[in-house]
Design goal:
Number of helices: 13
Shape: elongated
Radius of gyration: 29 Å
Number of strands: 12
Largest sheet: 7 strands, mixed
Structural class: alpha+beta
Oligomer: single chain
Strand order of the largest sheet: 1-2-7-6-5-3-4
Distance between the termini: 42 Å
Strand content: 15-25%
Length: about 350
């Protein structure tokens, strides 16, 4: 959805205030061989900020990922971060600048085909043995983020672009560490290389908890000139996405869905017939105007069936309106948990249900 968003920004550049923030949820499509977690049609949620080069945006988007996955009950989600400038810098210092894409595509497969597989692919793409030897430290890249950035500083000392990427990463990771994350883990993954056709700075990819066998559930990055293809130059932006279908599968596998997902009504008005139902709907209309969720059972059937319906819907109260209650202008309010029943006027009914 990022490219259509860039087009929208260009079309409405004189109408919107920058920095411009937006989120968007919609189905997207891609040509892919369907399998678990890979769909030809799936739902995605994007969050983007356009019109600012500030790295505070990256910090806030990491926090956004953490907030969402914490609310979903997902613990141990790994937010992987890298920087396009670092990848360019590595290619530069090993003498493979002209083969940046081949180099990064192979490196990105390290967790899938292993060190030897990556080296073999690099050689097949024309990257020399000498260049591969220089990149050897990346195959055993471990430690804290601070230790990793220190290793990168040594490796990229001769590359201005690479060192700029290191400094950007240090800023983002340092600020996130000081602010703290709730349940997620921020991790520097120097093999991460997605969207190199338009990402220019930070790159993100989100991995689910290790107990779940699933691909990434989110990703994104900084793009400094995506709007340029539509004629608006130097409009920096950054965005992240959530893969909603995959997130659903992860939540389902971890049994994190509640037994029922209902916005339950506070009370069910029992239906005894046409006159009683009309009397009930007069009260329901006024209660709803006070933002109190109540409903009328639509059919005049046995009371036991209506109570059973309320029980299955986890509705805590029933309002019973018969001829006696109507004549007195009252309502019988029954607590379906305790069984207590009281006769109240409308004001008291509203107070007890609010």
């Amino acid at each position: 959805m990022t490219v259509p968003f860039a087009r929208y920004v260009v079309q409405h550049q004189n109408e919107i205030e920058f920095p411009f923030k937006r989120y968007q949820i919609q189905p997207v499509w891609r040509a892919d061989r369907p399998q678990k977690g890979r769909f030809r049609e799936f739902y995605q949620c994007d969050a983007d900020v356009v019109g600012s080069k500030s790295l505070w945006q990256e910090v806030e988007l990491v926090q956004l990922y953490d907030a969402v996955f914490t609310d979903l009950g997902l613990k141990g989600v790994r937010i992987k971060i890298n920087n396009r400038k670092i990848l360019s810098g590595i290619a530069e210092v090993i003498g493979a600048k002209d083969k940046l894409i081949d180099f990064t595509v192979a490196l990105d497969k390290l967790d899938k085909i292993g060190e030897e597989g990556v080296k073999k692919e690099m050689m097949e793409k024309g990257i020399s043995e000498n260049a591969i030897e220089k990149v050897q430290p990346l195959f055993n890249f471990t430690g804290s983020i601070s230790e990793k950035t220190h290793q990168l500083s040594s490796l990229l000392a001769s590359s201005d672009e690479g060192m700029k990427g290191v400094k950007e990463l240090q800023f983002i990771c340092d600020k996130v560490a000081k602010l703290g994350l709730k349940e997620s883990i921020l991790d520097l993954d120097v093999t991460l290389a997605r969207g190199l056709n338009y990402y220019t700075g930070a790159i993100f990819e989100v991995a689910p908890p290790k107990s779940v066998a699933m691909g990434s559930i989110g990703g994104g990055g900084r793009y400094d000139d995506l709007t340029g293809i539509f004629g608006l130059k130097d409009m920096s932006g950054i965005g992240i996405s959530f893969g909603l279908d995959r997130i659903y599968l992860v939540v389902e596998e971890l049994n994190l869905f509640p037994e029922t997902v209902v916005a339950s009504s506070k009370a069910l008005f029992v239906n005894y017939g046409e006159k009683e139902a009309f009397y009930a709907l007069e009260a329901i209309t006024k209660l709803r105007a006070s933002n109190i969720k109540v409903e009328l059972y639509p059919d005049s059937v046995k009371v036991g069936k209506q109570f059973m319906y309320a029980d299955k819907r986890q509705i805590p109260f029933a309002v019973i309106v018969g001829e006696t209650e109507m004549n007195e202008g009252k309502y019988a309010l029954k607590n379906l948990v305790s069984g207590e029943q009281v006769l109240v006027d409308f004001d008291e009914l509203r107070r007890r249900l609010s």
